[in-house]
């Protein structure tokens, strides 16, 4: 590149009246030449409280080298992150989904305040990924999102393990099937270093979604942390961001109905996390592109399961990379006519051109042809009924049972449910109900992996159901129905349930129902009184007051029309 040029004057830095702004930036070490170049933000979530983003500083340096090599000027931006794994099962987990909004808001604020010309955002742990997409969409400036990588699997007693095994090990330990020494050994073995959780859980699901949306370069998610290809991908992203500034290619030109449907298809076909629903609904709302919760069911029902990935399968994200990566997933689906191949990507090329470069490792068993899948349909089911008039979500991979009718065992918090599971109070055939854990009721819509993994660990996974207005980790297995809307805190039908009510979960009929007459259900809701708020002040109270329903993505901004406002 002979030298990157802005597609528009920078209002913060251009002209004699902006001399004071330039003087302040000279104090950071920038030269006059650098001030005249396009300003590219390099945003990341390095934080010392988790392993997921520990490599962000190193990768940010690589991205900034790429920006400089393209004769643009990088400006490093830090934001926060919350670890789902570390906070799981505690009140701290209420902050996780809130952090998605805070990350998106903070990157947007810096982008607007400093009138950035372009943006590279490095993402790692679960919420950083949709947050980055939301920020890029709001700013609508040229930019690239790059996933910082999955961790390598650990080894425990001769087999690969991930953090999912530790959560399930806690349940086995409580059941007396794993002793103290075994649990301690598993704890030491499961997470060998930096990087996001190693199965096809939420982080890897959302990283894949970014590529099929067109916001991340194809193949950039594949290399694990520590692989030299990851630094190369970040350097290339810096170069690409500078080129995009010159070309003027923005997220609004990339994102379309087809790109969202492509992302749903790819993630469903690989057994991705149910959190995909919440996050893609949020990104679509920010971008002004219509997307309905029922489309996830419609797409999943016609999409075969072509990847044998954990939590329901055998392999980790590292194995996916070795098999051929996201490009091979895309090529398989495109050959089957399941993707819109003409959808644009951030490289300026079509999805078909990108996945056409897939290289399959001979003999790999991770990614199947669409004509010989691991299962004929995949992914995500949306259930409705008198308990979920606005919908609910269940991930079918890893779910052997297709229907269950059983007595409700009702809990008003995750902690109460976890205590019951660990004490042996849950029996085969029960339907565990955890309510007041939705976006407003939590507040924060906690993940229930601690409870679901404990059920699996105690051998109850295939024989019980679970309903919640909270959500689930990408590592969840079983007949677990989440995202129930409207939530209990808003007076949704879940608030009317009592112990012993007969609840039916039926995947084939797409139903989640309680055996109560409309009159009885209505009378109970009339008598219902909302519980006091758990968070009367602070950021959680602010979130509670503005967050939307899970059926709308649990967003805190007003959904926009397709038109864009000027930046800043």
Automatic annotation (TrEMBL):
The lineage of its organism: Bacteria, Bacillati, Actinomycetota, Actinomycetes, Kitasatosporales. [2Fe-2S] cluster binds at residue 52. SUPFAM superfamilies: IlvD/EDD N-terminal domain-like, LeuD/IlvD-like. GO terms for biological process: isoleucine biosynthetic process; L-valine biosynthetic process. The keyword Lipid metabolism does not apply. The gene is ilvD. The keyword Secreted does not apply. InterPro entries: DHAD_IlvD/Edd, Dihydro-acid_dehy_C, DihydroxyA_deHydtase, DiOHA_6PGluconate_deHydtase_CS, ILV_EDD_C, ILV_EDD_N, IlvD/EDD_N. Pathway: Amino-acid biosynthesis; L-isoleucine biosynthesis; L-isoleucine from 2-oxobutanoate: step 3/4; Amino-acid biosynthesis; L-valine biosynthesis; L-valine from pyruvate: step 3/4. This is Dihydroxy-acid dehydratase. It comes from the Bacteria. Residues 365-554 form the Dihydroxy-acid/6-phosphogluconate dehydratase C-terminal domain. GO terms for molecular function: 2 iron, 2 sulfur cluster binding; dihydroxy-acid dehydratase activity; magnesium ion binding. Functions in the biosynthesis of branched-chain amino acids. Catalyzes the dehydration of (2R,3R)-2,3-dihydroxy-3-methylpentanoate (2,3-dihydroxy-3-methylvalerate) into 2-oxo-3-methylpentanoate (2-oxo-3-methylvalerate) and of (2R)-2,3-dihydroxy-3-methylbutanoate (2,3-dihydroxyisovalerate) into 2-oxo-3-methylbutanoate (2-oxoisovalerate), the penultimate precursor to L-isoleucine and L-valine, respectively. The active site is at 473 (proton acceptor). Mg(2+) binds at residues 84, 126-127, 447. The modification N6-carboxylysine is found at residue 127. It catalyses: (2R,3R)-2,3-dihydroxy-3-methylpentanoate = (S)-3-methyl-2-oxopentanoate + H2O; (2R)-2,3-dihydroxy-3-methylbutanoate = 3-methyl-2-oxobutanoate + H2O. Belongs to the IlvD/Edd family. Binds 1 [2Fe-2S] cluster per subunit. This cluster acts as a Lewis acid cofactor. Keywords: 2Fe-2S, Amino-acid biosynthesis, Branched-chain amino acid biosynthesis, Iron, Iron-sulfur, Lyase, Magnesium, Metal-binding.
């Amino acid at each position: 590149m002979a030298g990157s040029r802005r597609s528009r004057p920078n209002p913060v830095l251009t002209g004699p009246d902006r001399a004071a702004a330039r003087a302040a930036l000279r104090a950071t070490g920038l030269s006059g030449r650098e001030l005249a170049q396009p300003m590219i933000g390099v945003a990341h979530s390095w934080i010392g409280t988790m392993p997921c983003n520990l490599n962000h500083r190193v990768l940010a340096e690589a991205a900034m080298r790429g920006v400089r090599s393209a004769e643009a000027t990088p400006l490093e931006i830090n934001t926060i992150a919350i670890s789902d794994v570390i906070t799981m099962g505690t009140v701290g987990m209420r902050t996780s989904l809130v952090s998605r909004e805070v990350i998106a808001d903070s990157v947007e604020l810096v982008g607007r305040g400093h009138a950035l010309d372009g943006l590279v955002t490095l993402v790692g742990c679960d919420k950083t990924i949709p947050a980055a997409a939301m920020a890029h969409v709001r700013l609508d400036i040229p930019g690239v999102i790059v996933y910082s990588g999955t961790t390598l699997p650990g080894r425990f007693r001769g087999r690969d393990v991930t953090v999912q095994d530790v959560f399930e090990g806690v349940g086995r330990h409580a059941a007396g099937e794993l002793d103290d020494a075994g649990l301690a050994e598993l704890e030491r073995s499961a997470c060998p270093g930096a990087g996001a959780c190693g199965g096809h859980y939420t982080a890897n699901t959302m990283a894949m979604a970014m590529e099929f949306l067109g916001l991340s370069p194809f193949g950039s998610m594949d290399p694990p942390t520590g692989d030299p290809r990851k630094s190369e991908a970040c350097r290339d992203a810096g170069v690409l961001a500078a080129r995009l500034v010159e070309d003027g290619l923005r997220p609004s030109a990339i994102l379309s109905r087809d790109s969202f449907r492509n992302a749903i298809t790819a993630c469903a076909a690989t057994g991705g996390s149910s959190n995909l629903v919440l996050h893609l609904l949020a990104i679509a709302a920010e971008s002004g592109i219509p997307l309905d919760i029922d489309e996830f069911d419609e797409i999943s029902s016609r999409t075969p399961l072509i990847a044998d990935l954990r939590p329901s399968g055998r392999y980790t994200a590292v194995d996916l990379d070795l098999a051929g990566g996201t490009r091979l997933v895309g090529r398989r689906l495109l050959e089957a006519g399941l993707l819109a191949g003409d959808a644009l990507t951030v490289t300026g090329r079509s999805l078909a051109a990108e996945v056409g470069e897939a290289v399959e490792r001979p003999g790999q068993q991770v990614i199947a042809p669409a004509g010989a899948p691991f299962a004929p349909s995949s992914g995500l089911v949306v259930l409705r009924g008198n308990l979920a008039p606005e919908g609910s979500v269940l991930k079918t991979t890893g779910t052997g049972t297709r229907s269950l009718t059983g007595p409700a065992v009702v809990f008003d918090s995750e902690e109460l449910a976890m205590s019951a599971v660990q004490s042996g109070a849950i029996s085969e055939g029960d339907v565990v109900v955890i309510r007041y854990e939705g976006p407003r009721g939590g507040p924060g819509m906690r993940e229930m992996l601690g409870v679901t993994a404990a059920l699996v660990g105690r051998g109850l996974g295939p024989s019980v159901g679970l309903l919640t207005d909270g959500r689930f980790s990408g590592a969840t297995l079983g007949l677990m129905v989440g995202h129930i809307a409207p939530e209990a805190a808003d007076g949704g039908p879940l608030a009317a349930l009592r112990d012993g009510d007969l609840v039916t979960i039926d995947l084939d009929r797409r139903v989640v129902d309680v055996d109560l007459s409309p009159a009885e259900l209505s009378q109970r809701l009339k008598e219902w009184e909302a519980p006091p708020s758990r968070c009367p002040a602070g950021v959680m109270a602010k979130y509670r007051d503005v967050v939307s329903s899970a059926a709308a993505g649990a967003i805190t901004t007003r959904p926009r029309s397709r038109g864009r406002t000027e930046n800043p």
